Structures are given as structure tokens and as C-alpha cells.
Amino acid sequence: MQNVVLATLFAAFFFAFQASAQTPKSTKGEYKVACIGFYNLENLFDTIDSPETNDADFLPNGKLLWNTEKYVSKQANMAKVISQLGTELSPDGLAMLGVAEVENKKVLDDLVSQPALRNRNYQVVLIEGSDERGIDCGLLYQSKYFKMDGARSVPVVLINPQSGERDFTRDILLVSGKLDGQPVHVMVCHWPSRRGGESGSAWARAAAADRCKALADSIRATNEDARVIVMGDLNDDPTNKSLTKHLKAAVDIDKVAYDGFFNTMYEHFKVGNGTLAYNDSWNLFDQICISKSFMNLQAKGEWAYFKSVVYRKPYLIEDEGRFKGYPFRTYSYDVFINGYSDHLPVYVVLVKRE
Q: What CATH number does residue 133 fall under?
């Protein structure tokens, strides 16, 4: 992890990130930097028919004519993006990356083996869950920065209020370990979609948020200062009740409850910045929320929040056609256009004063 002179580091931060939520009060000492991110990889399926997943469209004879050539190109495109995240602050890029919409562990093993990522030596965590489509959340981490203590997949039990039947959605991937020696707990999520309309499906995302909050509360029951991160494609914006009421993710850094979170992405959302587009408007569904224990930038030897980033580069945006100005995705109306994802990646910058 990069050791840098404090004055130099914060000068770079100030000019690169003028919208920072915090500013330094000291100009002495050294800081370490860690970047932690999330990226919805948009249907990263292999080409092999699997009875455990609903992968019919992503087969060579399926609707999308998904074949080895397209799979190889998709992998290379994803690796290109991931390799660039956070490199303005650390040559190694992201210490940890949560991902969503992946079929199985093999596709992530293939991803971290791509030439653009191979020298990072990313380790892969993925536990098969109960989603109806068979897609899961995963975590990539560099073992020289993060030492994993354990991981588990936590189901989100959804009981449809109208039918009384159970709906199945993506499990929460909970990974615990030590980031440069300090305990950190990371939940990687893909909350239920807005299928059926935003209001009609809000109950499902509220249930997912409640499950995350309950997990965080159980972690903090043994250590009230535990560092907890909730990240993912939450299918809601930072101001929706699933975040503000159920997860208790405050949009004001000065109003974070002791048992709540700070939503690091709100500053982007309030100025119209988003991570995906729909009906010619932007939403910011890809979010990273952090516990109050990350709030003390001046504490010595402890990880603290400094800044969040929506990674929005020109090559990730469609420049022509029906979806001009939208994220440059893999398919357009079932036609392979060799893009990246229909979501933009996000990450946070953490610093630790030595």
C-alpha cells in the first residue's frame, strides 16, 4: 500500500477532488491510501449450459448468440476498466472490488486472469446464492492489502405482500477480514429490481435494506466501532427510503447515527451525476455506504473516509445511436455492440494516518 507524504497527498486530493466532504487539519505525517469499489458487470455469463442458472439467452444457440469470441471480448473489456480504477492514487488500483451480475466463480477466475489484471493477483470470493436467474455477487481483493477471515452468503427472504409467496433474489455476500491489519466487514449487494414499478417493488428493497442493517447491527453488537461497508447495485437512489429509513444511510456526513451509515454517493447524485440511465434520465443505484467509524479523518492508525468517485470516462459512454449518452453496454436490442456495462463503476478513497 502506498506510503506518501501527507502534504503531497492532500495537495493531490484537493485539486483532483474539490468536492471532498472533508479537508485535512494537519500537514504532518504520512498516510496510506486504499481504494475500494463496486462494479455491476452486466450479465457476465460463460458459454456453458448450466442447470443451476437461467442462462438460456447466454449460450451459442441462445437468443443473444453468446459465444466464445464475445465472452473473451467482454472479459477483456471488463478487465480494462477495472485495471484503471483508483490508479490516480495507487499504482495497484483497487484493493477490493465488489461485483454483481456474475454467473459463477469461474467467470471471475477468468476475469482476474486477464492480462490487464494478472499482475494484481486478485483473489476471488463468490458463494452461489438463491437468485432466480442464478446471478450472484462477488468480491475481488488483493491479498497483500486485505486478509480474509471469512465469508458467507446471506439470503434475503422476500414474501410477496400480495400473493404471500416467496420471491427469490440475490444473496448478500458478507466478507470479513483485515485491511492492512484493521478489521473491516464488507457486504456486497444486488437489491431487488424495480420490476413492476418503483413504488410497487419498494417493499422488496426495504426488506433487503433491513437485512443489511440487521447484519451490521449484529457485527456492532460485539464491537460498536466495527468498520462496516455496504456496497452494491441497490436499485434505488440515495434519497429513497430503503437507504435513508431502512439502512439508516445519511446523506449528510454530519448527521450519521452511531448505528447508521454515511452514503458516500449522495454528493454525486444531488448534482445530477449517475451510474445508469433509463428513459433519458440518470439514476445512481450503485452506492457505497460506510459506518460512522470511518468518519474520523484525524485518527492515527485507523482507516477513514476521504472521497467517493463515479468513474465516468468517455469510452464508457455510448456516442451514437438510440442510447447516445448512456453507459456503453454489451448489447443494444439484442445486438452485440461490444461495450462494457450498462452501469458505471464507483469507488471510495480511504486514508490511514501513520
A: 3.60.10.10
